[in-house]
Write a structure and sequence with these properties.
By secondary structure, this protein is of the alpha+beta class. It folds into two domains: 156 residues, 2-Layer Sandwich (Beta-Lactamase), CATH 3.30.450; 157 residues, 2-Layer Sandwich (Heat Shock Protein 90). The chain is 45% helix and 22% strand. It is built from ten helices and 15 strands. The chain has a six-stranded antiparallel β-sheet with strand order 2-4-3-8-7-6, with helices on one face. It has a five-stranded mixed β-sheet with strand order 10-12-13-15-14. A two-stranded antiparallel sheet has the order 1-5. A hairpin with a 5-residue loop joins strand 14 and strand 15. Helix 1 runs antiparallel to helix 3, helix 3 packs across helix 9 and helix 5 packs across helix 7.
Length: 384
């Protein structure tokens, strides 16, 4: 039995069904990338039909992009065989072309995009003849490129999920802290009015002003992930770092810790208050785990499109579990720690279109590194 295939069919759907799939804007970007690759392959090679089967992280299911040559007919049994995926197995090498089935009029090749046997991802090609060595290399190179794009998209979805989680964490922290701060402020106000001596009144006023400042910062923190509220301006990161160090001076003096950083300025478009929070959280973490009379080093390197900032300490470093969980909300090795500092720091860097990661140093200690784009101001275009 022969079945006809629609001419020049191109779209995201099952190759065995004509029902379209809805997509979000970001998914459409992924679709367009896959579509471009499959069109270019069809233009370069003698392909009767081509399919890209990939896992869509946002919808959490596999999707198929199919392209068919004009006026071609294929046996229904072939579609049933391909749909069953009985031919898929662990023996199929990733990024390498393998023959699935060979018939007198056509043959089908597969090139796996990943090693996930649970959710197969692959490029499937049907041709009237055997591909040459050169053509096989072209297909395998395209497969590697597709695999790279899919990996980048999966990372994007993972970061998006992390950002959403951190937003929930920040909102929860705001609700938990707002009422106690208001109560402390009220008591401080009452003390200012009732204490007999001016020195005690001054201390009560200092408590009240500190609480008011904390309340203001908490309001800013609650909105810290929203791009439209980022106050993006060019700043010298060295000056923001100095502000952070100044606020940590009592703790630095207590542990006799020095912080070294370059004398050269580095101008990046950032939200000043949020970037200070990043330095506050990274430095306070480094101070806590640094030995007495230790050294904390800050370095930065300026590249064409981004700036790399590194903050390292001389502590004992991180365990394998720490390396995996250090940015997870409410995970902390510090006694009395909330586990929010590093999670919030990562969210702020992500909101600035950068990346934040951690690693152990060979010489000992841990190093937190983050990148910031140099053209953030033009990309954000937002300012209060």
């Amino acid at each position: 039995m022969q079945v006809g295939i629609p001419e020049s069919t191109l779209g995201v759907h099952s190759p065995f069904s004509t029902h379209p799939t809805s997509y979000s804007p970001k998914s459409l970007n992924l679709q367009s990338i896959c579509q471009l690759q499959i069109e270019q392959l069809s233009a370069q090679l003698p392909i009767l039909a081509a399919w890209i089967v990939f896992y869509e992280p946002e919808q959490k299911k596999r999707q198929t992009l199919a392209h068919y040559a004009q006026a071609q007919y294929y046996p229904y049994s072939l579609f049933s065989y391909l749909q069953s995926e009985d031919w898929w197995g662990e023996s199929l090498p990733v990024w390498q072309l393998s023959i699935v089935t060979r018939e007198p009029d056509y043959q089908v090749y597969v090139c796996p995009l990943s090693q996930h046997t649970q959710t197969p991802e692959y490029l499937l090609l049907c041709s009237q003849r055997t591909f040459s060595v050169c053509e096989q290399q072209v297909i395998e190179q395209r497969t590697q490129l597709l695999s790279y794009y899919l990996g980048v998209y999966q990372d994007y979805c993972l970061q998006k999920t992390e950002v959403q989680l951190l937003e929930q964490v920040v909102q929860r922290a705001e609700h938990q802290l707002r009422n106690p701060l208001a109560l402390i402020s009220l008591y401080a106000e009452n003390l200012c009015l009732s204490l007999p001596t001016s020195s005690l009144q001054e201390q009560a006023m200092m408590i009240r002003e500190t609480v008011n400042q904390l309340s203001t910062n908490l309001t800013d923190l609650a909105a810290c992930g929203q791009q439209k509220k980022l106050r993006i301006e060019p700043y010298d990161l060295r000056l923001i770092l100095k502000e952070s160090i100044q606020g940590l001076q009592p703790w630095l003096k207590q542990k006799e810790i020095n912080i070294h950083f370059p004398a050269t300025p580095v101008i990046v478009a950032v939200d000043h208050w949020q970037m200070k929070q990043v330095f506050d959280n990274l430095l306070s973490n480094a101070i806590h785990f640094s030995p007495q009379s230790g050294l904390i080093s800050c370095h930065w390197q300026v590249f064409c499109d981004e700036v790399l900032i590194e903050v390292s300490d001389q502590g004992q470093g991180l365990s394998e579990e720490d390396l995996q969980q250090v940015f997870t909300p409410f995970y902390s090795r510090r006694l009395g720690g909330t586990g929010l500092g590093l999670a919030i720091a990562k969210k702020i860097i992500l909101d600035h279109q950068g990346s934040l990661w951690v690693q152990n140093l060979v010489k000992g200690g841990a190093q937190f590194s983050f990148t910031l784009p140099r053209n953030q101001a033009s990309r954000s275009g937002s300012k209060d």
